[in-house]
Amino acid sequence: MTKSRSTGTPKPASPARRKFLAAAAGVAGGTAALAMPRLARAQDTVTLKFQSTWPAKDIFHEYAQDYVNKVNEMSGGRLKLDLLPAGAVAKALEMQDAVIAGTLDGGHGVCAYWYGKNKAYSLFGTSPAFSMNANQILGWFKYGGGRELYDELVHDVLGLGLVGFLTGPMPTQPLGWFKTPVESADAFKNLKYRTVGLSADLFGELGAAVTIMGGGEIVPAMDRGLLDAAEFNNPSSDRLLGFPDVSKNYMLQSYHQPAEFFEIIFNKGKFDALSDDLKAILKYAAEAHSADMSWKAMDRYSKDLAGMKAEQGVQVHRTPDSVLQAQLAAWDRVVGRVSAENPFFAKVVESQKAWAKRVVTFHLENEVSQDVAFKHFFG
After folding, report:
1. Do 241 and 232 form a contact (C-beta atoms < 8 A)?
2. What is the pLDDT of residues 105-128, one digit of tens each?
3. Global pTM?
4. Which domains does the chain have, with CATH numbers?
């Protein structure tokens, strides 16, 4: 109602004004109705117990934390991954079983840790790489049929109640830490050596006595003489885990793990129960993390390698070409033997080789040599 200017008595509002007031009230009421459910959802947080396969002090656990941070931030409080280090609930090599059982909801590790269930699993981590770097293999996973083969392995071949994502391209892994520098492939005969995945088959071909163990166990085993030599992954991890305390000879460049990346897994029942947008966050956070991790690795690995040389007396040696050639010959034997025994393994190998032939051909034809430029600018 409004008042007449002449008499001051109320007069009815016009039909147009009544419609406006009704519409305004409807908007206000609708806004309040929308706001309340949003507030309720924000308070209803889904928490997932998420464990890495890495010691808390390792940079790999830091990478796991980086992924967790992205998920928690992107979900706006609706989803929370609660990160734990290796051993908090399950040992490193038992994390996958704990996720399948539901003791853990998810975890961060590498496919090589599960190769005992099917050696094809290692092709999604510790493969011969067939001349590809890790980012090129992740390209195969995303666009070359690798995703479909991974799902076939996990769900159809092995029947595991898991959902997984691959992320985080790793550079070539060092040959490892030795009492004396390796001068030929004969040095591996009867050598007590730690590695994982298909790399164990490779060094077995070279005559090594291979032990598979989690990252946090390696340095104590070397200190007690249970291992003669070992590889883990990269200068930052190796430094943080204490390798310079038990060895001063660090061999770089190797074909045993020329490329690798991480695997993030979730219990399938827990994953399927999430809303579609939260599932998408878990997926795309892995892709965002993949890029971020590769940039962080550039920074940290280069600093830690220089620091070990300058501050801890580590001697860096290049793996001899004769050892690299012996590794490639050993890969031929391993891939041939396992392919004959395991048709699915052979199927994945052929898919990777087809992608590598096309993608690496383009890379070699298109990319200019950085060696020449480095020598020009830095001598």
Report:
1. yes
2. 999 999 999 999 999 999 998 899
3. 0.86
4. 45-169+259-298 (3.40.190.170), 176-257+314-378 (3.40.190.10)
